[in-house]
């Protein structure tokens, strides 16, 4: 048997991990992608144009559950670090999250028909909060694992590349299928309810199916050291975020990128409907174009990172994504082909924005204190993921609030000129500016890592 298979959890990986194990580990991201993209893509539009919720209120609905998750994520990370037992410290929480997640996800798009107005808003928010709680139970321990599988940056990059490759495939499936499922099921509340139920079943199956590979990859015997006591956990998170300049540059830079992604995803249905004036099938087409390119581009970004360094590759990815995103400004009524080409080009840069910052995170943290980083990797990962989720939520919430301030009329009615003019700004120009803001921080990170002699 291959040595890498005998000891998949070795501190140093002599040979690449077996693809079958990495594929099993990555499978979970198909389920996680359903939650990452479907609310981003459709929940704001569902609230405003199906439930007739004012755009600004709908933006708040997107934000509040994510604020809860930002608070809850470090709790899950600390809990995961402190678990001891025959099942390991990551697997039990992941199993609980996998079992509970489909229920909250399905309920999110299926408020009872007798609920309207404020009652429907409360239902959707409560279901969204339940789904985010289950998602955190799975995703925080899951995201911490690359830092435990190997200390080599090349191995971590490849593990994350497999993970993000499945994520891109999941985004392609969920982002492509969800608008079509709504349309095929008749649209309106029934269409969204059917879509939510089917994607919940797919997501639950992927999460549960990945648990076998996670069981094999985690090291249930290795001594990771004593995790911090609860009273010191918050201080550790603050220290990792604010006391480590390299981590701070990476964390804030990636936060700008996630704000851009969140805003663009939330605004895409509005851009398709009002700017390009096309059907929901075009919404699926744009997502598929971007996601297919993302999957194809993953190996290219890994090779770029191996040759030129992960930080420089991350800068190049952000620049490519920003420049491509500006192309949406020139898309007008009927410009489906142009919009599809822009989506494909944006997918090239977005692939790097997904894989490279997270691949860098364990090394950036461990450069300060390797022993503390390994003992508290779940907590430190939770701090990272909290920033990611908050950025995505802020992007979607800001888009909703600004759309409301521009005069958007909920309920699928005719829109004033001010609302129509705001759509390309919120869909293209604003996200491009957010991506540009990440570049100086990543440049500072690159210079700092070179001065410190860290592996690039």
Any key phrases for this structure?
disordered N terminus, 456 residues, 16 helices, 81% helix, Growth Hormone, Chain: A, mainly alpha
Question: How does this model look, in words?
Answer:
The protein has a single domain (18-218, 230-452), classed as MFS general substrate transporter like domains (Growth Hormone, Chain: A), CATH 1.20.1250.20. The chain has helices at residues 3-6, 19-50, 55-82, 91-108, 117-144, 146-149, 153-184, 188-217, 230-243, 245-275, 280-308, 310-325, 336-366, 370-375, 377-405, 417-452. The radius of gyration is 21 Å and the shape is globular. The chain has 16 helices and no strands. With 456 residues, it is mostly helical. The two termini are 32 Å apart. The longest helix has 36 residues, at 417-452. Helix 2 crosses helix 7 and helix 11 (280-308) runs antiparallel to helix 12 (310-325).
The string of secondary-structure elements, in order, is: HHHHHHHHHHHHHHHH
Q: Roughly how much helix do the residues carry, as a percent range?
A: over 70%
User: How many β-strand stretches?
Assistant: 0
Number of helices: 16
Topology, element by element:
Layout: H1 3-6, H2 19-50, H3 55-82, H4 91-108, H5 117-144, H6 146-149, H7 153-184, H8 188-217, H9 230-243, H10 245-275, H11 280-308, H12 310-325, H13 336-366, H14 370-375, H15 377-405, H16 417-452
Helix pairs in contact: 2-3, 2-7, 2-8, 2-10, 3-5, 3-15, 4-5, 4-8, 5-15, 7-8, 7-11, 7-13, 9-10, 9-15, 10-13, 10-15, 10-16, 11-12, 11-13, 12-13, 12-16, 15-16
